[in-house]
Give the backbone structure.
Amino acid sequence: MPSAKRSHRVGIARLSPCCRIVLAVAVWALAACQSAAANDGIAARDERLRQRLSQGVLRWGGDAEGGAPYQLRDPHDPSRVIGFEVELADALAEVLAQRLKIPLMAEFVQYQWESLELGLLISKDYDCIISGFEVTPARRENMLFTRPYYTYAEQLVVRADDHHINSLEDCLDKAVGTLAGSSAERLLSARGVREIVAFDGQIEPYLDLELGRLDAVLLDSIIALYYASINPKLKYVGGVTDPGSYAIALRPDDVDLAQALDEALGVLIRDGRLRAIFLRWHVWNDQQSALATGEDRSAQLAGLGFTSDGAPAADVADITPADAVDIHIIASSAQLWTIRQYAPLLLKAAGMTLLLTVCSMAAAVCLALPICLARLYGPAPLRWAALVYVEFFRGIPLLLLLFVLYFGFSGFDVQMSAIATAIVGFGLNYAAYEAEIYRSSILAIPVGQWEAGQALGMTHATTFRRIILPQALQTALGPMTNDFVALFKDTSLVSVIAVRELTKEYLILSRSSLKFLELGLLTAALYLCMSVPLGYLSRYLESRFKAGR
Amino acid sequence: MSTTSTPLISVVGLCKRYGPRVVLDNVHFAVKRSETVALIGPSGSGKSTLLRSLNALNQWDAGEIRVGPYTLQADMAAQRNGAAVRQVRRLLGMVFQDFQLFPHFTALDNVAEGPRQVLNLSRDEARTRGRELLDRVGLAAHADNFPHQLSGGQKQRVAIARALAMQPHGLLCDEITSALDPELKYEVLDVLADLKRDGMTLLLVTHEIGFARKAADRVVMLADGGIIEEGPPEQVLDAPRSERTRQFLSRVLA
């Protein structure tokens, strides 16, 4: 963010020497006034920020499914998230805390990568995005970006025994894998590559390349570093191309925080902490000199490990810090894998799945009854309304419903938590199914049962409540249990609104440990542990009721 | 005493059509208190329709039904939850051919449910009454059995007890032994005979000519939408005046 002061100086530099002297006095006077005013402004801004961050946390959104080196689960302790962006966020919080003299911690908010922008702008689940988020013109229209904290470039990777592909130009009619929604994907489509295969994870494209399902993979070079460079079956071709910037994204109205983070990044650049993080994660390279901009560029270059003319400082490239991260971290995490480490995490996520399922089903079962009654016995308008409800909620995809519920009502004052949204969404959807199950079960009760109740002098309502409904529920129990089991699996959809349940946890953990099969079996076992007893329970109850006939 | 002289049930000009088919054509008919009346006739002759009309379980097109102090018009049966309808149902209990016990209740709860829900008896009062009635139909030992654990005859006796629990003045029995094996019929018929002795008004749609002869005060022969003949059983059953009755009896008794 260029300040007014800086643009003046740039202007002066272009003037002829004789004018400079005349102007200098005036400019110095002006600058002095300005800086006094700016100091006042900054003090006021810092005060506003203290209010803004009074909770003591700076929430940043990312997706640990993304992987190394951005964010991933620590193979030594999978309950922790590590990555160069995690360290960056911690350092930024530290700088801000010092500056504002308040306690401040960075807090990682797990989110679906594709939804990060929505989580920032609409549901406001975090203050900023730090997640390999490329600065693009389209994103600039919606969000505020700080100065870049990393310069990325694209790296083409092919199979080691492939001698035909030497550049992106050789790939135009080939199958090229990349990450969905990434700048690499945009680049591929801009270059006219015909078959672009976009994945959600970083491991899969390289895996498919190795297996021959793809001819090449184009991804950010630091992804290639962790996932391709260590694989002898793959090789880099061409140099890095199409550099771009990762920066921190904020809401457009969050100018104060954006400025403060901007300055904090400047501090980390100048004092060498950013360089240290890069080196620890092996992502330092000579393109990072582009991060140095503005008035004290040479100090920034020095902090980043460059000489004042932008060349790498003699010693920097060779330094590997003692605490550097193992470049084989992904592969070695597969070695470190123990069930004891991962089972508790999956179990916790299974708890969320169980909570969501039970609450949603309870909501659906309760909501379904009035709907069914309106549909069966209501006056015509109510009958129609109930029919519309059933057809509507049966007919739309759950994913759509969840998305709309979570992000679509942000303009209103009701702001539901993600878990509440999930329960409401599943409840609304499943109520439509349960209402139809009730309806058919009620209609299946012989009319003689109605007559028997009425012949005793019972009202319609009493007959329904005491005679018809209990029997109908017994009939409904089987199909309802089916739905219950189906709901267990449907709850995996809630990861789109950033609820971490069992399937999402599996995806995150398996991508940082490569134990797709082992963790998959464990996850499946957890699902079965929840659904199989349910099936038995329903068969037991059914047989009991059947015996009761 | 007026209670014995005025009929408990009067049917005045009852008409009922199913589409173009006339089932009941201007039927006049009455049952005195404590009287046992057997309704006989070929199937489709409207016996069941007549009986069910008395409990407003089906609608009719014209005519009225008087039960005790209550009168049901043709259009009242349509609003099946009307207060008069429910009063009539309390006066006349109904027992169905296929029992229609509540499968999710025990025998005792089947009997106690009506008093609890309709007469607002407490659970204990209702169950006490239920036990007494189960005892009366000889099923005290089966109070806690579910319907599926009972034989057909036992089920039908529970159904009778269930109807009696509402303390009705009369009982409408719709071919209540037709679904039973012959050897089980008698336990049900014995209960009916017992009720008759105690002064219960009984209106039976039945094919049990033997029972009608023994127990009925009056036999009513219904055919082709109307009453063909009626009178004491020895007259209608043993010396029918109508050829239609003779024909029917010869087929039933064959």
Remarks:
- The first helix of chain A runs from residue 4 to 13.
- Residues 488 and 527 of chain A are 8 Å apart (CA to CA).
- Chain A has three domains: 4-146+249-327, 152-243, 339-547.
- The interface with chain B takes residues 446, 448-449, 451-452, 454-460, 462, 466-467, 470-471, 474, 545, 547-549 of chain A (CB under 8 Å).
